[in-house]
């Protein structure tokens, strides 16, 4: 399977990956995160783990469990660490600790290399018996809630290595080694593979979206950090200039995100009775549907206020769509302002760029092509995989 990626990145890149993997064949490797489906981390692991196995590596993936209280605690920490929540009830710390212990007792963590993804399972390190442990952070840690970060930092400091997406997230107050590795999309996955135009049209029409009229799309969990109300407002402002515009907001629930339902309801309220707004809540494995909408879109938006990386941006750019993105986290390294799309903070500015792109077909196409090339060079799974292998080689010395 790895050979199939040569068409995108060339034979030399594949050779380098195979050689690196050969050196690591004897190691047992484990990935741990908090959900098997929904959100970017699960999206990546679903593709990365089989690919690593294909290379002959001994890789497992385990998902921690918890009750509603635990996921409320981890979502509160998540929001606090990304700087959007100030009030953190103190009992949540002990809820978090309790579930770290339960999971440590239930999961076999006896591996040579353990990748722990994000804060949810970070506390498992307390129960490490052996191996090199790597903390892979997928969130925006640039302005964390001081108390929550102090709590998490006690665990993170016990790791052998931490990996962040962009320099802004790396921490001066951590004494362990830190690497920067952006995440990636898989060009051969159901989410990103080529689709015949007839399939795209059929899928989009199934949801009553008109493929003859312009489509503004955002694909995101219903999460305040993704600014769904700002998306609706930007659409409304753009529609004043482009009356036949339709908005599709495609979301899905994630097992570790208890807030989705409430945010969805508020977004429905904000949409009012506008029949050109399609708020679709699809199952988390609707990869081909997401793919089809990204291909059918005229302009893609990712109006996040806070963002770790925003895989949806690379997914859209790969399909040659310009993206109007929030000036947040990893969006800033994907959307090169004026080249692969535009960065916009307020709904008004976002609407301005959306309107401009809707009107300028030639510029849309140029930016789309630049976006695809930017992703090909920087954000494909092979790039990510090579860097993970280098991180393993580094950690195991
Ligand atoms: N996604 C999906 N269906 C949805 C919403 C999101 O398949 O309805 C996928 C999306 O295509 C992307 C991932 O979930 O691959 C979201 O990753 P991202 O980094 O954009 O955000 P996160 O959810 O991790 O904050």
| Shape estimate | globular
Please report which band the strand proportion falls in: under 5%, 5-15%, 15-25%, 25-35%, 35-45% or over 45%: 5-15%
Radius of gyration: 21 Å
CA(first)-CA(last) distance = 28 Å
Mean pLDDT across the residues is 96
Give me the strand/helix succession.
HHEHEHHEEHEEHEHEHEHEHEHEHHH
Give the helix/strand class: alpha/beta
Helix content: 40-55%
Strand order of the largest sheet: 2-1-3-4-5-6
Bound molecules: uridine-5'-diphosphate
Number of strands: 12
Number of helices: 15
Instruction: Pick out the low-confidence regions.
Output: none
Largest sheet: 6 strands, parallel
Outline the fold blueprint.
Blueprint: H1 6-9, H2 11-23, E1 28-33, H3 40-54, E2 58-63, H4 68-81, H5 91-106, E3 113-117, E4 132-136, H6 146-156, E5 161-164, E6 178-180, H7 197-206, E7 215-219, H8 228-239, E8 246-251, H9 260-271, E9 277-281, H10 287-296, E10 299-302, H11 311-318, E11 323-325, H12 331-334, E12 341-343, H13 347-359, H14 361-378, H15 381-396
Parallel strand pairs: 1-2, 1-3, 3-4, 4-5, 5-6, 7-8, 7-10, 8-9, 10-11, 11-12
Helix pairs in contact: 2-15, 4-5, 7-10, 8-13, 11-14
The structure holds uridine-5'-diphosphate.
Uridine-5'-diphosphate binds at residues 39-40, 43, 191, 219-221, 250-252, 282, 286, 290, 309-312, 315.
């Amino acid at each position: 399977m790895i050979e199939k990626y040569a068409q995108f990145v060339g034979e030399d890149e594949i050779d380098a990956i195979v050689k690196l993997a050969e050196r690591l064949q004897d190691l047992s490797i484990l990935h741990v995160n908090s959900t098997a489906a929904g959100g970017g981390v699960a999206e990546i692991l679903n593709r990365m783990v089989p690919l690593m196995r294909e290379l002959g590596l001994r890789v497992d993936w385990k998902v921690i469990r918890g009750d509603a209280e635990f996921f409320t605690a981890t979502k509160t920490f998540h929001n606090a660490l990304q700087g959007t929540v100030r009030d953190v009830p103190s009992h949540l710390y002990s809820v978090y600790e309790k579930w770290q212990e339960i999971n440590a007792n239930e999961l076999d963590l006896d591996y040579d290399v353990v990748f722990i993804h994000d804060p949810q399972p970070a506390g498992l390190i307390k129960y490490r018996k052996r191996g090199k442990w790597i903390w892979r952070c997928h969130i925006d840690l640039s302005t964390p809630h001081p108390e929550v970060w102090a709590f998490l930092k006690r665990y993170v400091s016990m790791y052998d290595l931490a990996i962040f997406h962009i320099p802004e997230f790396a921490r001066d107050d951590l004494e362990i080694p830190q690497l920067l590795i952006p995440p990636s999309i898989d060009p051969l996955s159901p989410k990103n593979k080529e689709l015949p135009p007839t399939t795209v049209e059929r899928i989009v029409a199934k949801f009553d979206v008109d493929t003859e009229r312009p489509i503004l799309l955002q694909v995101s969990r219903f999460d305040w950090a993704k600014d769904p109300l700002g998306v609706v407002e930007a659409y409304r402002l753009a529609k004043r200039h482009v009356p036949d515009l339709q908005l599709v907001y495609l979301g899905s629930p994630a097992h570790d995100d208890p807030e989705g339902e409430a945010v969805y309801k508020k977004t429905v309220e904000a949409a009012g009775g506008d029949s050109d707004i399609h708020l679709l809540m699809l199952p988390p494995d609707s990869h081909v549907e997401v793919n089809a909408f990204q291909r059918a879109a005229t302009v893609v938006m990712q109006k996040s206020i806070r963002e770790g990386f925003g895989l949806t941006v690379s997914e859209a750019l790969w399909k040659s769509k310009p993206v109007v993105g929030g000036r947040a986290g990893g969006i800033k390294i994907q959307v090169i302002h004026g080249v692969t799309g535009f960065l916009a903070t307020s709904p008004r500015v976002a609407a301005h760029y959306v309107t401009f792109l809707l009107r300028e077909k030639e510029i849309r196409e140029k930016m789309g092509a630049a976006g695809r090339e930017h992703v090909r060079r920087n954000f494909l799974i092979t790039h990510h995989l090579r860097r993970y292998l280098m991180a393993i080689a580094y950690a195991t010395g």
